[in-house]
Amino acid sequence: MRLSLRAIPAALALAALPSVITAQVAVKPFTAPAWAFPLLNPTGPVPPLDSIVLERVPNSALSFTRKQVNNGFDVVDWFPAQHPRMPSPVQYGMKPDGRACALCHLPDGQGRPENGTLAGLPVEYIVRQVRAFRNETRLSASPEFPTGPMHRVAKGFTSDDDIRAAARYYSRLRLTRRNVVREVREVPKTRIAGMLYAHDGEGTEPLAGRLIEVPESLERHELKDPWVTYITYVPVGSKARGRRIASSGPAGIATACTTCHGPQLLGVGEIPPIAGRSPTNILRQLINFRTRARKDSTALPMYAVTDALTLDDMVALAAYVGSLPPSPLKRK
Ligand code: HEC
Ligand code: HEC
Q1: CB neighbours of 34 closer than 8 A, spacing ≥ 6?
Q2: For ligand 1, is residue 140 a contact (CB within 6 Å)?
Q3: CB–CB of 313/30 below 8 Å?
Q4: What is the model's pTM?
Q5: Crossing angle of the two packed helices 123-134 and 147-156, in degrees rounded to 10
Q6: I want to staple 266 with a disulfide (CB 3.0 to 4.6 A). Which of 201, 249, 273, 284 is the partner?
Q7: Does the beta carbon of 101 sit less than 6 angstroms from any atom of ligand 1?
Q8: Using alpha carbons only, what angle is made at residue 198 by residues 319 and 118, rounded to the nearest 5 degrees?
């Protein structure tokens, strides 16, 4: 059966779609590249976090210690006037394992490259993804990274009402631009700093087909400043190549990103918006669909799409999609 794309209604009936689409593309072998999942596990004893020195971030009148910044059960909020009041699961979490959503995804939902944006995602999508983490039908192509924290958290929240309250809160917030995408041949030297890359000293090295995202300031990233900018280095020509694939589809129009995610990739119904989000996260999710690490039933429409993509295509798409305006009101 051929799929007529124009026939897909805006509020796509997710359950009906997969069997039609998945049959179309032969799956080629694919190996998830280790560089897309940087992880540095500290060896030896971790020094206690400082509980005396008060830290600051630009444009906030507040100050907190590093111990406070890393408290998963009462999250610090550098800019409380910039978002509505957080519901309890977002700010305080649920002890012992349900650390507060805002610890990682931040109070304003902008998230970080290693966990992802929640601002503006559809309520039902958030609820379903947390359930998928809890049931471990959503994994990561890299065994240790980065779903582990989210699995523990999802299992730590025993009440679906809490997840729904968090989902409602985040879905009302708006993603604003936090990233710059640069096409380069040589990338400044980096090191792995926790779950992401950071600039490291002088000099450059060949980018060699990779996508490398770094915070402009590791210090501000570690203090969970929601306004820190991330720079993503991608191969020359990536954005143009990504634009072509997004609008024509890697395997015909049925697989064009715009067909399901909307003309500006800002989402349709329960299909998530992807424009302007962290390129690292977009790339990882494409790899996760491609390797079937995301195996929730609603992930099926993405299989035919990612089966037709090479790694270079995925990098190009992440660069292009990540560089788009994240909101219809903030067009470039
Ligand atoms: C300890 C850190 C941490 C906390 C706390 C946390 N998350 Fe996450 N979350 C992550 C990581 C890491 C990922 C990325 C997993 C991946 O993509 O493999 C993630 C991903 C997600 C996603 C998927 C986003 C997408 O675009 O697909 C959703 C939804 C989500 N989290 C919701 C929540 C909610 C709701 C809470 C609070 C109830 C929460 N998270 C608390 C670390 C965390
Ligand atoms: C046939 C419909 C369809 C097409 C075509 C499609 N997507 Fe998707 N996409 C979905 C659905 C549905 C989901 C949600 C999957 C889930 O619930 O697990 C999704 C999820 C995603 C996600 C994960 C977002 C997140 O928050 O984690 C990314 C990234 C993505 N798509 C990128 C793309 C790109 C890039 C293209 C084009 C190359 C594309 N999609 C084409 C239906 C589609």
Answers
A1: 142
A2: yes
A3: no
A4: 0.93
A5: 100
A6: 273
A7: yes
A8: 55
Q: Which uninterrupted H or E stretch holds 153?
A: helix 147-156
What are the pLDDT tens digits along the chain (332 aa)? 333 333 343 334 444 444 444 445 556 789 999 999 998 877 777 888 999 999 999 999 999 999 999 999 999 999 999 999 999 999 999 999 999 999 999 999 999 999 999 999 999 999 999 999 999 999 999 877 667 789 999 999 989 999 999 999 999 999 999 999 999 999 999 999 989 999 998 999 999 999 999 999 999 999 999 999 999 999 999 999 999 999 999 999 999 999 999 999 999 999 999 999 999 999 999 999 999 999 999 999 999 999 999 999 999 999 999 999 998 754 44
CB environment 288-327: b (16+ within 10 A), e (fewer)? bbbbebbbeebbbbbbbbbbbbebebbbbbbbbbbbbbbb
Q: Give the Cα-Cα-Cα angle 295, 238, 320 (nearest 5 degrees).
A: 60
Q: Is 315 touching ligand 2 by the criterion CB < 6 Å?
A: no
CB 59 within 8 A of CB 147: no
Q: Which domains does the chain possess?
A: 66-172 (1.10.760.10)
The closest of 165, 169, 193 to 84, measured between CA atoms, is 169
For ligand 1, mutation pick of 37, 153, 155, 196 (most atoms within 8 Å of CB):
153
User: Which SS3 state, helix, strand or coil, does residue 220 take?
Assistant: helix
